[in-house]
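Exercise 3.2. Students should predict the tertiary structure of the chain below and write it as structure tokens, then compare their answer with the key that follows.

Predict this chain's 3D structure.
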Amino acid sequence: MDALETAGTDTIFALSGNHIMALFDAAIGRRVRLVHVRHEGAAVHMAEAWARLTGKVGVAMVTGGPGHANAIGALFTARAGETPVLLLSGHAPLGEYGRGAFQELDQAALARPIVKSAATARSARALGAEIARAMRIARSGRPGPVQLSLPADVLEAPLTGAVKPLTEASFAAEAMPLSGALAVQAVRLLRAAERPVVIAPPALCTPRGRAALGALERALGMPVVAMESPRGLADPALGAFGEVLKDADLIALAGKVLDFTLRFGDVPAIDPAAEWLIIEPDAALLERAVAGRRERVVLQALAGAEEAVAALTAAAVAEGPAARHGGWASAVRSAIERRTEGGGRAELNSATMAAAVAEFVAGDPDAVFVADGGEVGQWAQAAVRCPNRIINGAAGAIGSSLPFAIGARAARPQAHVFAVLGDGTCGFHMAEFDTAVRHDLPFVAIVGNDMRWNAEYQIQLRQYGADRTEGCLLASSARYDQVAAALGGHAEHVTRLDELAPAISRAVASGKPACIEVRIDGLPAPKPPALGAAGRGG
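Answer key:
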């Protein structure tokens, strides 16, 4: 607990259990607050949202065995979202391990494929150093989750003598700088190109990261685009970016993995003649990106995304202003701002619901916007403009939005938090309304209820036909607002579009965790709009 406080952790999202009772006891009287949740996966999601808004390592704490296993799935979302999260898992006592101990499990082996590092503490004296090491790993290079198991007998072992104190520096990330010479070379290559684009990773899709990317775009005078959606170039929030990217003649990846979200850099998504500038913190991924396009890679470098953006910005400022890409930058930004319309203005559907939420959020400059996946989530992500934005991320997992909203409110206790999700995703963590009520962490959840798993329905409809949709329908009698009310929250039920804005206002004014159930006509997710000849080039 001393180590966590030294690291600047003021909130731990936890679910109790036998193996970690010593930690709950040690938390009493501390500056660190325990937010006691209803599911281990929700604790990890909350820690991720907290990390994205604070810039610190989010901490989740669960018990061993099944508690640890329950938390694992949520780590996948944090890994794809490039978020520094530390999962502290209780563990069977080392003195009993291998003898059939209660909830005995090779926890590190279970976590290892998903996290940057998984380890088991062996010494009480080294616990602080283990925490510091885990946080350094979580922050360094490409950020991501780390897992540390804490055997019960290690937690309860007596300590004699002084333990070497930790400092804030003990938890600092290991720098992966981009050299000044390489940064200057990169800037000159970008400015020499006719239609360059810089693409940034999910790790920089945070308030701090987006501010840094904005500074880079201004310094370079060319488009800088961040990507974090599982829909990649078809991300509705990026409009027609996928279309205009086909015209780029130099693509710079500033820590962005070359993967499915960029269609692997293949034709026809990318011009076969386009050149590549690849800055990547992972040596293996750098080698993978370069392979197959070696003759088109004009520069490659091993560096962290945050460090690379800072170095490129400094180099661009030092090189002086450049305005020759103004037309191209304007064309890219215009393409990103293009949106697909859905439904009539008076209809209550996925699109008009999202538009109403967007209008409300736009009037609150300090708001935090959270969006889940699925078709409802895609409309919300396309419509809502908010600098403090947390979405389900490149993992494509659903169900994280309610815990995300609670973690966001814990990180920004004075901000209004708005979460948009569908009825399917709402079912994952509805019990966390109880967590929010108990810990006084209000937020507003807008649940678009189309009474089906609409993303799966749309896939089946396209691929197999209307007479072969299976496993898509949800109960028409379900009332998610009433679940929130039963758990102590505020409830609203909306069936007309003109009812939505007043319902959001009442939910905010209630000061409680709130659920607004909106009965909608579920639409397919918006498709990227096509660009005419006038909308391309530059």
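Discussion points: The CA atoms of residues 18 and 531 lie 59 Å apart. The mean pLDDT is 94.
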